[in-house]
Amino acid sequence: MTAPNGTEVTKAEERTDTAEASLRARHGARARSAVERAEAACRHAGVDDSQAKLVPNSPESKAAHAVRLSRQSVDALAETIIDPAADARCARNAAASATVAAQVAKAHDVGAKLGEAAYQSALQASLAAAEAAGGGALGRDERLNVKAEAAEATAVSAAKKVGWL
Questions:
Q1: With helix as H, strand as E and coil as C, how does 95-119 read?
Q2: Residue 129: what pLDDT?
Q3: Which of 2, 123, 131, 162 has the fewest CB atoms nearer than 10 Å to its CB?
């Protein structure tokens, strides 16, 4: 195989490119899922994009702003070079914005046990995504990626159960 600059690509480099593309797909899927959860939680709580403020002054404006930034970041993934560490950070940030949105949705559903469970699941997904992106993992640790994917799936299930998704 030949690289775009005309140099020969070794089999090892091909495998690395394939592995990194696979990681991008996995981190990207997790990020998109978290953004969808965040948008759904905001919709449920009556928070829309127009409430986003550069300097948020309420939980609703903070959630709207976080969702907007995460959506932009996820949309930009396709335009950037593959970097598992950056891709994992994007997924981490999207999961964090979903946690902020879940907190607002939970407050909207005062006293609902399912809302609390959905918020806790969102928080766990955010923590797992942070662990997968951070430290020495840099988005490449299989065990941490699997853990983050499972936590995201649990958060999706909880959001569906409470009716946010």
A1: HHHHHHHHHHHHHHCCCCHHHHHHH
A2: 98
A3: 2
